[in-house]
Amino acid sequence: MNGIVSYGAYLPRHRLDRAAIRKTLGQGGGRGTRSVAGYDEDTTSMAVEAARRARWGASFAPASLQFATTAPAYADKTNANAIHAALGLAPEVFADDHASAVRSAIGALRAAAADGGLAVLADVRLGRPGSADEAGGGDGAAAFLFGSGDDVVAEIVGRASVTAEFLDRWRTPGQTASSTWEERFGLGEYLPLAQQAAQRALAAAGVERPDHVVVASSHGRVARTVAKSFGDAATDRLEPVAGNLGAAHLGVQLVDALDRAQPGETVLALSVADGADAFLLRVTDAIARRPSGQGVVDQLALAADVDYATFLTWRGGLDREPPRRPDPVRYEAPPAARAAAWKFGFVGSRCQQCERMHVPPQRVCAGCGATDLMTAESLADVEGTIATYAVDRLAYSLSPPTVTVAVDFDGGGRFSCELTDGDPSAVAVGGRVEMTFRRMYSAQGVHNYFWKARPVVAAPTADEPALAAATAKEL
Prior knowledge:
Layout: E1 2-10, E2 14-17, H1 19-25, E3 33-35, H2 43-52, E4 64-69, H3 80-87, E5 94-99, H4 104-115, E6 118-124, H5 132-136, E7 139-148, E8 154-163, E9 169-170, E10 179-180, H6 183-205, E11 212-216, H7 220-228, H8 239-242, H9 249-260, E12 266-272, E13 275-283, H10 296-300, E14 304-306, H11 308-314, H12 333-338, H13 340-345, E15 347-351, E16 357-358, E17 374-378, E18 384-392, E19 402-409, E20 414-419, E21 432-443, E22 446-455, H14 464-474
Parallel strand pairs: 2-14, 4-5, 4-6, 11-12
Antiparallel strand pairs: 1-7, 1-8, 2-3, 6-7, 8-13, 9-10, 12-13, 15-16, 15-17, 18-19, 18-21, 19-20, 21-22
EC number: 2.3.3.10
GO molecular function, one term: hydroxymethylglutaryl-CoA synthase activity
Organism: Patulibacter medicamentivorans
């Protein structure tokens, strides 16, 4: 069998009530909410978080890393390399970007499926203030590890693609907002393509009707119309509460569908963008290995509201007065390259004689004095406890105040770093934190990526009815 070995999704812990847009501007908005990447998040950092959640398979050794987004942090530089470094992948693992269009997600999935690679899809969706894209967009990421054999949790049993050239959605380089053609034109062009791709994928597998269907398209009316043709099998539980995630929307929906699917059931994943692409998956008994507590529903339940002014500030639409400290300066490339394992992988060193953990890594042990007797050890997946903290209301930040915490890691090691995704008034000694990969700041066109701590928050216990009710209300 060839197919998906493991998967994961990441949704930021912030959401914007769409009604707040109309309340502020007198136009736009709508019902429901949209997910919002934090001030220190971008498509690269969210891709890392999604990929970390996809490491629950029997082994995590992708042959390649394929990254897709419509909002790359860099142009003329491979963004997948930073993801590669943060995951600690071997140097021989090929990394590549698929960028600029929503359909790039399909390119990443096909490439990863071909060689047993890791496909990571991430997006930050923008639009002019008050526009449908602003209210209807959303931010998030998904990752899929492909392979073969008994570890496959969802076998690929059918696939089809249809390509057609017409002008429906576009954005020229340098623009932040996309333009769209009249809605009826796109509907007329897309519907037959979607139907053809779906029928061909189902016919290839000899399946008349799939058990689960996910449909993703930046053309909302197309997605709703196609989904309606499959009845109850197709329900987008994501869009009403998180928005359309662009290149990541199909992936996050697919993660949600696989979390609900049972062995033997089929899942049709249909992307309608610059053509139509369909994957038909059959779930295997190995799906029983999927972890609990990290699903799309679990993450949506943890989201906290942000106001519209904060949203605009984080997205660069509102240039607010920063705290009165000097602006940050870009980091230097040579020292960053020398310390890549520490900077991107959060790799410390443990003394082989006394087992003392050093963060950052050291050559000389602070405990027994041994020299060059260290073992590299990553703390990226290790939780810790807040030993002390400080709140700085003057440090430069898009989201002041800045909270710095000293973390005592489980198993040894102490490190002071910034706290993110937390309420400064709720920080307390003894609080539990986990590490997350973030963009510290950007200066002179250079993004400074590193690790921050964030509060460990338990997801509500199996509280899907509340989310389902909210989703049904919006639908």
